């Protein structure tokens, strides 16, 4: 169960506690609250589904903006310690802070190639993946077309949010 309980919060309190579940995009939490939060939404799974719907139903420009709000994996911001707390933990959890020089260079080249092709950064829910699996997925997804990649990135962002809410419920 989430604490504080979403169903008991005012709009501003809900956004204060859960506005960061979607990277730099508190509007997702606000839209979810506007739907009317019930007791069932005090569970991380149900709240994740509701928040995910807000994103899936949002206009394409808003979807692209939220993809663009994500930092590069193993990128310069990560090296500089400039990520949100969640991103820092997720990237470290996948061992991205332990890349060799060669692996950092590969990430750098792939990040650039991906952004040049699609106009937004590569996003993947990294929980349970190591850097080798992430690099393999990165190379494979570079072959997709832009509509497929936009839909894939949004699915991955919804997964990331689900993991974040579950971690909150567990007090992590
Ligand atoms: N997947 C999980 N966390 C992150 C992140 O911080 N950036 C990107 N690009 N993908 C992620």
From TrEMBL:
Pathway: Purine metabolism; urate degradation; (S)-allantoin from urate: step 3/3. This is 2-oxo-4-hydroxy-4-carboxy-5-ureidoimidazoline decarboxylase. Pfam families: OHCU_decarbox (PF09349). Its EC number is 4.1.1.97. Gene3D superfamilies: Oxo-4-hydroxy-4-carboxy-5-ureidoimidazoline decarboxylase. Residues 8-165 form the Oxo-4-hydroxy-4-carboxy-5-ureidoimidazoline decarboxylase domain. InterPro entries: OHCU_decarboxylase (IPR018020), OHCU_decarboxylase-1 (IPR017580), OHCU_decarboxylase_sf (IPR036778). It comes from Halomonas colorata. Keywords: Decarboxylase, Lyase, Purine metabolism. It catalyses: 5-hydroxy-2-oxo-4-ureido-2,5-dihydro-1H-imidazole-5-carboxylate + H(+) = (S)-allantoin + CO2. GO terms for molecular function: 2-oxo-4-hydroxy-4-carboxy-5-ureidoimidazoline decarboxylase activity.
